[in-house]
Write a structure and sequence with these properties.
Layout: H1 9-31, H2 37-46, E1 50-51, H3 52-59, H4 63-76, E2 79-83, E3 91-95, H5 97-117, H6 123-142, H7 153-163
Antiparallel strand pairs: 1-3, 2-3
Length: 175
């Protein structure tokens, strides 16, 4: 029987992430933002004046990605880049008044998305789900990118091997 990837937790996670990105993207588009820009603005609202490399690290993305996002946000008037006082070659990113004003809309969108996503779940379910998702995230983050071991096939292969009669063994005869 063929492996049905649609029944895996990771497939469900990917589908859920796609749906959440779609809903979030609709809200951001109405605000004039692109997906991912909300994370830049929220990060700066928590710690304004980060360097580009600090921002990239905080967002867990590559520096060129941050450069592109910050350039767009600056062109839209949400952020501004200023040269570092200590090192003029290094730029720090700051929210503008427009950027600070956008935070309320971003927060509203995230709250609405959370409410929509968790409809029908009680507080106990939400707490358990959050804990399980954190564990899955830790598991996946800990695995090296070049590790190609197929963790899913190992238990299935063992189960299939147990289900198959061993040719070397003689069947037990019952009289």
């Amino acid at each position: 029987m063929a492996f049905n990837h649609r029944k895996t937790i990771t497939f469900r996670l990917a589908q859920t992430a796609r749906a959440a990105r779609g809903r979030s993207g609709s809200h951001l588009t109405r605000m004039g933002l692109h997906p991912g820009q909300d994370s830049v603005l929220k990060t700066l609202s928590e710690q304004d004046g980060l360097s580009m490399s600090q921002l990239a690290q905080s967002l867990a993305v590559q520096p060129p990605t941050v450069t592109k996002m910050v350039s767009r946000l600056a062109a839209q008037g949400y952020v501004e880049r200023r040269a570092s006082a200590g090192d003029g070659r290094q730029a720090h990113v700051y929210l503008t008044e427009q950027g600070r004003d956008a935070i309320l809309g971003i927060d509203k969108g995230w709250k609405r998305l959370e409410k929509e996503a968790l409809a029908g779940l009680d507080d106990k379910d939400v707490k358990r789900l959050r804990k399980l998702l954190r564990q899955i995230e830790r598991n996946l983050s800990a695995i090296a990118e070049d590790d190609e071991d197929d963790v899913i096939d190992e238990p299935e292969a063992a189960a299939e091997a147990e289900a198959q009669p061993d040719v070397a063994e003689k069947p037990e005869v019952v009289a």
